[in-house]
Amino acid sequence: MGTQKIIITDHLHECLTEEIELLKPDKIFILTDSNTHEACYPLIKDHPLLGEANISTIPAGDENKSIQSLMFVWKSLSSFGASRKSLLINIGGGMISDLGAFAAATFKRGMRCINIPTTLLSMVDASLGGKTGINFNGLKNEVGAFYEANAVLINMQFLKTLDKQNNLSGYAEMLKHGLIFDVPNYQELLNFRFEKNADLNKLGILVQESIDVKKYYVNKDPHEQGVRKILNLGHTIGHAFESFAMHSKKPILHGYAVAWGLICELYIAHRQCNFPKEELKKLIDLIKDRYGIFEFTCKSYDKLYEYILHDKKNTKGSGIISIPLLKERGVVSLDETVDKDLIYESFDFFRDFMGI
Amino acid sequence: MGTQKIIITDHLHECLTEEIELLKPDKIFILTDSNTHEACYPLIKDHPLLGEANISTIPAGDENKSIQSLMFVWKSLSSFGASRKSLLINIGGGMISDLGAFAAATFKRGMRCINIPTTLLSMVDASLGGKTGINFNGLKNEVGAFYEANAVLINMQFLKTLDKQNNLSGYAEMLKHGLIFDVPNYQELLNFRFEKNADLNKLGILVQESIDVKKYYVNKDPHEQGVRKILNLGHTIGHAFESFAMHSKKPILHGYAVAWGLICELYIAHRQCNFPKEELKKLIDLIKDRYGIFEFTCKSYDKLYEYILHDKKNTKGSGIISIPLLKERGVVSLDETVDKDLIYESFDFFRDFMGI
Ligand SMILES: NC(=O)c1ccc[n+]([C@@H]2O[C@H](COP(=O)([O-])OP(=O)(O)OC[C@H]3O[C@@H](n4cnc5c(N)ncnc54)[C@H](O)[C@@H]3O)[C@@H](O)[C@H]2O)c1
Ligand SMILES: NC(=O)c1ccc[n+]([C@@H]2O[C@H](COP(=O)([O-])OP(=O)(O)OC[C@H]3O[C@@H](n4cnc5c(N)ncnc54)[C@H](O)[C@@H]3O)[C@@H](O)[C@H]2O)c1
Ligand SMILES: [Zn+2]
Ligand SMILES: [Zn+2]
C-alpha cells in the first residue's frame, strides 16, 4: 500500500473528482452488487463526472464472487471499449472489491481502479492491500492476483444502511488489528457499540487506526512471504469454524468466525506464550457478549482439525500447525508450532466458556 | 526480465534439474498442447524429477488460448492440490506460454512457472518479458497479466519438428529485433535459411542475440509505458494484415503478417524519416523471397485503415496514427505521427512491389 492512496472523507464527491482528474481515464466503469446498487450507488450517482459511466451490477452474495461474474465484468469492459487507461470504480463490500479489482488487474493486463468500500469489513480490510480474487472449484480465493487499487475512498455514511451483523463482522477485524498493534484508541475500540445512531465520526477515527495497522504490515511484506501473516491472527481456527458452519448448512459471517477463532487462539497464546490471563478474560467476555454463542460438540473436533490441516497444508504439508500467536497485545510470535492436543484443549475451553 | 533467467542450453535435463532444485516446488505440473505433447514432451518426459508430475494437455491452435482452457488449467492445479510453491512447466509455443504463465500468475495469486518454448517465435519473443494472457470476447490478449516466468529454458532441438512456416514466423521477429538494435551478427541473420538440416547451433547464436534485444527494451520499460513500444515495429500494419486475413477466412501466421507489415512501415520510415533506400530495398527483397506474396486490392485500403485505427484507438482515440519508425537500423523514433495518405501510399508501394 506504499503507493495506494487511502482516504477517509466526508466529501466523497470532491475526493472522487480529484482522483478522476488525476487519473484522467478515457472511460469510467462502475461495479456494484444488487444491494449496493440500491443502498450505496445513489450516494454518488449524481457526480457530474459519472454521467456517462457504464454500470454493471451482479447479484449480492459471496457465491457470486465467481468466474461467471468475472467474465461478466470482463465482457462489459471489453464490449464498451475499456482501455488500460479506463477506470473501474468498485462500490460494495469485500465481494465487490475482490472481484472488481481482480477484473481490473487482468483486463488488458491491468487497468485503473478505485475501491469505494461500503461495509466495515471492506473499509478496514478487504478493499486495502492488493489481495484480489474469486472463489473457484469450491475454494475461497483460489484464483486471484496481487493488485492495488489506485485509490480507496472511504465514506462512513455508507454504514448507515449496513445491518448490525455485517458491522460486527468488520468489527472483528478491527479487534484483530487492535491486538496485533498497540493502537492509541484501543479502549475506545473495545467500548464501541453498533447501536442505532452509533457515532460514525468516532468510528471513523477507529477505522483510520485500523487501516494504519493493516498498512504497516502490508508495506513490510506486500506478497505475504513473512510478517504479513500476522494479519491471519484468529483466522486459522476462524476459517475452520467458517468451513464447518458452511458444511453444516448454517453459514456464519466471516468476522463472526474470526471473533470466535480469536477466543481459541488467544487461549492457545495464553497457554503457550503466556498471553496475560486478565486480557484473555476481558476479550472473550466481550466477544461472547457481542457475537453470542457458536455451537459444536466434541464429536466435531476431528472435523475441525481436518479443516485446520487443510488450510495449512499448502505451506507445510506435514501436519504441523504453525500459526502467529500473541505474547501480549502488540507483540506477536510469527511461527509458533502448535500441538494437536493444545488445539483440542482450546476447543474444550471454548465450549466450557460458551456453556455448551 | 531483470529477474527472469533465460538460458539456451544443449543440456535441458541438467538445466531443469538445477532450476527445480532451486525452486524446491512441493508439486510439479506440466502444460502442453496436443502437438507439443507428441513432439516435445518426449524430450523431457524421462527426467527423474518429473516422475510424479501432473500433465495437462489442451488442443493446439490459438483459438484455444481461451477462458475455457484457462479454467481447465486452474481446475487441474486446484484439484491436484497445487500451492503457491508448486511449479508449472509450460512446454509449447506462444499459445502455451501465454496461457500457462497467465494461469500461474493467477492461481492462488501467483505460483511458480518455467517456460520451455518450442517454437522459434516463443524462443525469441512470446515466452520472454512477462506478457501473459488469453483471447477473450473475440479479441487477442484482451485478458492477461504481467508476470515473468521464473525461468525460460531454451533447447534448439525442439525446432527439428517445427514446420518451415512456423520457423519463418519466428524469424520475422528476429528480423525486427535486428532492425531496432544493431546486433553483431546482422548479416548472418539475413543469410540464415530454414532448409532441411539447418545449422541449429548457428541459429542458437542468432536467437541469443535476438533475446538480448528484447531483454534490453523490456528491462527499460517492463509495463510498456514508453520505449518498449519499439518492439511493435512492423506490428501496426502487420496486425491490420492479420485481422484482414482472418476476416477473409485466409488466416496467416503472425510472423508473416509482421514481415509484410515491415515492408509498409519501412517504406513509411523511408519517406518520413529518411530510412536509407538501399537498406529498404535489401530488406523487402528478402521478405518477398522468404514470405512470398500477400494479396489485397485497393478496395481494401479503407478496411485495413479501420483495423489500424482500431488497434491504436486505445491509446489515442483521435484517429491519429502514432507508431515507432526507423531512422536507420538501430535508431528508432518512437512516436511518429503518420498521415492517412502516407499509409495508403505504403499500401500502393506494397502492391506495386508484390506485382499485384
Ligand atoms: N482482499 C482481502 O484482503 C480481503 C480481506 C477480507 C475479506 N475479503 C473478502 O471480502 C468478502 C467479504 O466482504 P464483506 O463482508 O464486505 O461481504 P459482501 O461484500 O458480500 O457484503 C456483505 C453484504 O452487505 C451488502 N452491503 C454492502 N454494503 C452495504 C451497505 N452500505 N448497505 C447495505 N448493504 C450493504 C452486500 O450486498 C452483501 O449482501 C469475502 O469474499 C472475503 O473473502 C478479502
Ligand atoms: N507474450 C508475448 O510477449 C507474445 C509475443 C508474441 C506472440 N505471442 C503469442 O504467441 C502465440 C503465437 O505463438 P506461436 O507462434 O509459438 O504459436 P503456437 O504456440 O500456437 O505454435 C504454433 C504451432 O506449432 C506447434 N508446435 C509448437 N512447437 C512445436 C514443435 N517443436 N514441433 C512441432 N510443432 C510444434 C503448436 O502446437 C502449434 O500448432 C500467439 O497467441 C501470440 O499472441 C505472445
Ligand atoms: Zn479476515
Ligand atoms: Zn509479434
UniProtKB/TrEMBL annotation, chains A, B:
Q: Which InterPro entries match?
A: Dehydroquinate_synthase, DHQ_synth_AroB, DHQ_synth_fam, DHQS/DOIS_N, DHQS_C
Name of one Pfam family that matches:
DHQ_synthase
Q: Does the keyword Metal-binding apply?
A: yes
Q: SUPFAM superfamilies of this UniProt entry?
A: Dehydroquinate synthase-like (SSF56796)
Quick one: a GO biological-process term for this protein? Answer: chorismate biosynthetic process
**To which pathway does this protein belong?**
Metabolic intermediate biosynthesis; chorismate biosynthesis; chorismate from D-erythrose 4-phosphate and phosphoenolpyruvate: step 2/7
Give the primary localization class: cytoplasm
Tell me, what is one Gene Ontology molecular-function annotation carried by this entry? Answer: 3-dehydroquinate synthase activity
Q: What EC numbers are recorded for this enzyme?
A: 4.2.3.4
Q: Name one GO cellular component term.
A: cytoplasm
Please verify whether the record's keywords include NAD: yes
Instruction: Provide the top EC class.
Output: lyase
Name the cofactor(s) required for activity, per the record: Co(2+); NAD(+)
Reactions it catalyzes: 7-phospho-2-dehydro-3-deoxy-D-arabino-heptonate = 3-dehydroquinate + phosphate
Q: Where is the 3-dehydroquinate synthase C-terminal domain?
A: 170-314
Looking at the record, the residues that make up the 3-dehydroquinate synthase N-terminal domain are 57-166
Record's subcellular location: Cytoplasm
Q: Which key words tag this protein in UniProt?
A: Amino-acid biosynthesis, Aromatic amino acid biosynthesis, Cobalt, Cytoplasm, Lyase, Metal-binding, NAD, Nucleotide-binding, Zinc
According to its UniProt entry, what is the function of this protein?
A: Catalyzes the conversion of 3-deoxy-D-arabino-heptulosonate 7-phosphate (DAHP) to dehydroquinate (DHQ).
Q: Which family does it belong to?
A: Belongs to the sugar phosphate cyclases superfamily. Dehydroquinate synthase family.
What's this protein's name?
3-dehydroquinate synthase
Task: Name its species.
Answer: Bacteroides coprosuis DSM 18011
